[in-house]
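[job 4471] stage=fold_predict status=RUNNING
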Amino acid sequence: MLIDPLTVVAQIINFLILVALLRRFLYAPITQVMKKRERLIAQQLKEAAHQQEVAQQEAERWRQMQQSLEHRQASFLTQAQAAAEEHRHQLLQQIRDEVDSTQAQWKEAVKHERQVFLGTLQKLAGQQLTTTVRYLLQDLANADLEQQIIEAFLTRLNHLPASEQAVLRVALSNVREQKLMISSTFPIPQESRNRILEVLLKQARGVDPSAYQFTTAPDLMCGIELKIPGYKLAWTVEQYLQQLEMKLNQVWDGMEKESVEQG
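[job 4471] inference complete, writing structure tokens
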């Protein structure tokens, strides 16, 4: 086979022309499109990275907001619990105060009722005791109760302890123009008055007998009472009734204490 040089050269020229044409009209546009596409992709990647960074910043902001919200929620919860606890303590204290107040009122009412009861009992007991003793003395000893009271008062006045005699003398020595009251539940006969004055004048001879004044005191519970400034001497049924009241108070207090312990 013979090779035509001219043909070969023509084909080479055609090939070069084809390559030049391809490079001019095909390869160059494709390359430009690829570079443009590459820049576009790079831009998109950059924007995606930026968006990712923004998203991370936003996520961090939301995380911080969530933590802040949780902290505030925990703080509110703690404050609410503290307020509830404080309110509970206030209610308990209020209930305790109301219970204490009710208990105090109840005790005061019981105390008042006890005083009324004991006062009534003392009055009734005094009246009954006076009546009983009067009848008893009249029936058994043929003696008058009032005379027995005078004798008991004189006995006490004659047998005062030394210390009390000193107090009586001092009180009598300080008397100036005051009246020295000798009160009794009943009128004292003149003979008995003279006996009483005789004993008193022995205690303080400088006192004018007219300074002593005998008087009847219905409120005085069955007895005689000598009252001068700074001194008082009495013999009355009330003293014994006061001892009875004290005993009853002790019994009452014991019952009240036992009731409180039993709830």
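[job 4471] summary: The beta strands are 180-184, 212-216, 223-228, 231-236.
[job 4471] exit 0
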